Amino acid sequence: MDLKNRIILTFVKLKQNLSFSALAVLFGITRQTCTNYFKNMIPLLALVLKTMIPWPDREMIRSNMPIAFKNFNTTRIIMDCAEIPIEKPHCVKCRILTYSNYKKRHTIKWNVALTPSGLIVHVSSSYGGRSFDKFIVIDSGILDKLDPYDAVMVDRGFLIENECLQRHLILIQPLFLKKKLQLSKAEALRIAEIAQARVHVERVIQRLREFSFLSDEVPWNLITYFDEILIIMAAIVNLSAPVLNMTNIRKFIL
């Protein structure tokens, strides 16, 4: 099979998540050959496409700031963690590391960061479902790539306030009620503004989930390739039509 058809086979698997048996019939090859082609193409595609996950400088990000971020115009990245189910591992240690108490099943998690305009700029390695979001963020090194006084927007679950203070970063996240019974009007308004700004983050993650490979349980024999698969998917999302219309982009004068 020529290179073009091997690439097509790989993307059909990622997009539709057809079984290797079904793909073998479609491409007129054996199931084992089909599996081998997929496993061989993943590292090659990741190597080529990883350049499509750039790290823009602060000025470029601020010059393409969406209107929804008018009150958060120092935001460099918006972060979130995603989690999907995997096949139950055979080894006991792997079962312990991948079992998610929240999901009540075996999962893997990863951290994704994007600019306010919706460009994916960072995809971490995958971690077992037992890992906390805070650990994934710190271990991935994403905070160390930021410049002092950059703002990081996250959801409530990211307990990284001290880590941001140590690096002179500004943390933007919804307020906790703590012992308060009710938020003030100003606090409620700020939460609403953050939620509005984060809407397109969910859209980008949803685009990643449009790859059916992420919608189904990931087979254990493909876990080794998962980090490179994430790179491929993130790059394709970046190459797709933007999640925001250009009319929603506001240029800030530095």
From TrEMBL:
Arranged from A to Z, the UniProt key words for this protein are: Metal-binding
The answer to whether UniProt assigns keyword Ribonucleoprotein to this entry is no
Q: Where is the DDE Tnp4 domain?
A: 79-238
One example GO MF annotation: metal ion binding
Superkingdom? Eukaryota
Any Pfam family hit? DDE_Tnp_4
List the PANTHER family: THAP DOMAIN PROTEIN, TRANSPOSASE HELIX-TURN-HELIX DOMAIN-CONTAINING PROTEIN
What's this protein's name? DDE Tnp4 domain-containing protein
Record organism: Trachymyrmex cornetzi
